[in-house]
Give the backbone structure.
Amino acid sequence: MVDVAKNLHEVLNNLPEKVRLVAISKFHPNEYIEAAYNEGQRVFGESHEQELKKKVETLPKDIEWHFIGHLQTNKVKYIAPYISMIEACDSLKLMKEINKQAAKNNRVIKILLELHIAEEEAKYGLTLDECRQLLAEGEWRELKNVQICGLMMMASFTDNEQQIANEFDLANSFFNEIKAEYFANDSSFCERSWGMSNDYKIAIHHGSTMVRVGTFIFGPRVY
Ligand SMILES: *Cc1c(COP(=O)(O)O)cnc(C)c1O
């Protein structure tokens, strides 16, 4: 077994106090999550609804689960009772469904808006202009059971650290723009979820408040 405790503490020791760790446990067994839990880690990220459900049912109840993958609207109802944050929200349609299912469960669900900034072709994530437009249209203001807590993005998959840093900077200045225009008086709009195993050390110097690290802690995933 991978030395989860050692790896976890190595990441935690690298994080400034204001940056939180979401331990990405997708495709890893409960034993790995328990090893991190026993070291005090409470926030975990998963990307598949069925796998998450099994883990929620069998692991401690005080874990905060973040949904980090692409979420189909027809799956929202399954995670709505317990999900702590949905990180990859990239359409008004998905926001409306989250709102509806959150209301059914008498709760407010925290979400992040997912940006597409990386150079790779990606099916998911809002371009900056799409995100501006979504916010300008204003319908999101009526969704009382959804709380927009900030932004999430993935940098390009590249060895070029300058490019990665530039992408984080772009996301960070976009965060400031959106914050000033729409959320200036909303202290809960504060999260910038960027940085993964390969680039979290860069991310923490470029505005990240939340890193999503999987492989570095738990080892390679077996799909
Ligand atoms: C899998 C995943 C991660 C974790 O990636 P690692 O390289 O294993 O740290 C982070 N964010 C998202 C959105 C993911 O899907």
Observations:
- The chain is about 40% helix and 20% strand.
- Residues 70 and 122 are 11 Å apart (CA to CA).
- The mean pLDDT is 97.
- The longest strand covers residues 146-153.
